[in-house]
Write a structure and sequence with these properties.
Largest sheet: 4 strands, mixed
Order of helices and strands: EHEHEEHH
Number of domains: 1
Strand content: 15-25%
Strand order of the largest sheet: 2-1-3-4
CATH architecture: 3-Layer(aba) Sandwich
Bound molecules: glutathione
Oligomer: single chain
Shape: globular
CATH class: Alpha Beta
Distance between the termini: 33 Å
Number of strands: 4
Number of helices: 4
Radius of gyration: 16 Å
CATH topology: Glutaredoxin
CATH superfamily: Glutaredoxin
Structural class: alpha+beta
């Protein structure tokens, strides 16, 4: 299963909602607090192009913020993002 990483700050209702949603789905995550840590906040902004928290990654895929996560969840898209099984290579044409 691909790991989940959530950039957060301490006082952040959207972070609370994102973490709650992940917990409700039985998913564990690594929390990366960026408040008071300029290096991590810059890393987050560089990786996402966004400055708000939370910012959520599943594996290398940038999901976005809480509302993006909730939308992916609503569409039933979380299992596919969590699946780290390498894609099966197709047989070459003509073989
Ligand atoms: N639509 C965003 C909203 C995120 C948001 O507004 N986060 C607040 C903290 S809870 C924030 O980062 N505010 C600082 C800012 O807007 O620069 C989401 O769903 O994650």
């Amino acid at each position: 299963m691909n790991p989940i990483r959530v950039y957060t700050t301490r006082i952040c209702p959207y972070c609370v909602m994102a973490k709650r949603l992940l917990s409700q789905r039985g998913l564990s995550y690594e929390e990366v607090p960026v408040d008071g840590n300029d290096a991590l906040r810059i890393e987050m902004m560089r990786r996402t192009g966004r400055r708000t928290v939370p910012q959520i990654f599943i594996g290398d895929h940038h999901v976005g913020g809480f509302e993006d996560l909730a939308e992916v969840d609503r569409r039933g898209g979380l299992p596919a993002l969590l699946d780290d099984t390498p894609p099966r290579s197709e047989p070459e044409a003509g073989s």
